[in-house]
Amino acid sequence: MVNKKEKNKDTEVLILDAARKVFVRKGYDGARMQEIANEAGINKALLHYYFRSKDKLFDQIFKEAFKTFWPKIEVVVSQEDTHVKDLIKVAVNNYVDLLMKMPFLPAFVVGEINRSPEKMEELILSTGINPGKVVEIIKKSIKNGEMIPMDPRELLVNIVGLSVFPFLSRPLLSRMFWDSEEGYTDFLESRRNSLYEFICRSVLTECNKSILC
Question: What keywords does the record list, in alphabetical order (predicted)?
Fold first, then answer.
């Protein structure tokens, strides 16, 4: 027999799944609580019982998304013999995987960064992301001669920017350079390999470029 706690959890999962679908179709700004309730097959009053506003609902989706993102990177950075190319590969793949599932995320994040950077910083750090660990891997790679000398933050900004921009600019780029949405989706999927190689060839020292795989 399902107890009340399990039923509440099932309803919350149902709402979150419905919200993701609506956010994908309409984006954050275009999504409405009534449409999310309809998608979940519940009334709006019950939706508001679990999530009082669209912001709170999205915050929960955002946290869950990044809680799946960071552990995969943490596995890499926690290994003593990690090469920076492994960090680049897992970061690029994770960004592409995340944004293929949640294409509405970049526009929301950019909007929130402009409106409330403090809130976004708090939200991201609450997911357990620790940029300091990543910076240490990069510094170690530079010291060991695997990477060219550079500010570690520059590499991180390049990874994030080059991964996110094609998703953020999708409405424009897909119209200008592709005949269909499917074609642009295929481009985004194939880009993970070309982006990985592009970044590695930009930051690895000559003697380390041969280890790309």
Answer: DNA-binding
